[in-house]
Amino acid sequence: MSEARLWHVVDDYFTERLLGDDEALAAALRDSDAAGLPPIAVSPLQGKLLQLLARLQGARRVLEIGTLGGYSTIWLGRALPADGRLVTLEYDPRHAEVAVRNLTRAGLAERVEVRVGPALESLPKLADEQPPPFDLVFVDADKANNPHYVEWALRLTAAGSLIVLDNVVRGGRVADPGNTDPDVVGTRAALEMFGTHPRLDATAVQTVGAKDHDGFALARVVS
After folding, report:
1. Angle 119-128/146-155 helices, nearest 10 degrees?
2. Alpha helices in the chain (DSSP H)
3. Residue 182, by phi and psi: left (phi above 0), alpha (psi -120 to 50) or beta?
4. What is the pTM of this model?
5. Conformational region of residue 43, where left means phi above 0, alpha means psi within -120 to 50, and beta covers everything else
6. pLDDT single digits (tens) 188-223
7. For the residues of 147-206, what is the DSSP string, one character each?
């Protein structure tokens, strides 16, 4: 068995024993696939990690940058209390339509708002509304703009908030100084912010599994 295949097998083992079956989540993946959305949603175990992080935060307000078909949104939305609020930003109107259907079926239509359009246009509009600080921000959109998303996350959070940045390993390419792919460059710039910004206390974790070799960065807003 190849090393990569073994990663997937172990992820399946954990998923079967720790998560069980969930029709709303399974249907979200099926419908996303049927609609031709790219198969880049978080894995079930990663979704559960996001949910646990939100619950540990006692989150009442969550911002997600990058909705896709709403799979991660369902995990995060379920962590919120009945009066909680999740705002998720999606560039592609077709993806947003799929996400809205998936969220409605999961019973989260009243708790989640999907905003359509480029995130760097939606975020200033959101800030203009002067919302209460978000308790958790999950960044999982186009990686070239990661540093801009982190800047906006800082504007829309307060001390004690959590920022999660997904897909930071890029198959190890993030550590190759000669790699100039825009997604790698954007991820590096965001990690530099995580490591040097005076308002952030951060770490990053490599992962292997259903998403192959990747990882995430996690930062707590400290002031």
Report:
1. 10
2. 3-18, 23-34, 44-57, 71-77, 93-105, 119-128, 146-155, 182-196
3. alpha
4. 0.98
5. beta
6. 999 999 999 999 999 999 999 999 999 999 999 999
7. HHHHHHHHHTEEEEEEEEEE--SGGGGGG-TT---HHHHHHHHHHHHHHH-TTEEEEEEE
Largest CA distance in the chain: 53
Distance from C-alpha of 144 to C-alpha of 214, rounded to nearest angstrom: 16
Asked if residue 102 lies in contact with residue 32, where contact means CB atoms within 8 angstroms, the answer is yes
Q: Which residues have CB under 8 Å from 134's CB, separation 6+?
A: 61, 62, 63, 87, 153, 156, 157, 161
How far is it, in rounded angstroms, from Cα 122 to Cα 118? 6
Please state, in angstroms and rounded to a whole number, the distance separating the CA atoms of residues 188 and 38: 24
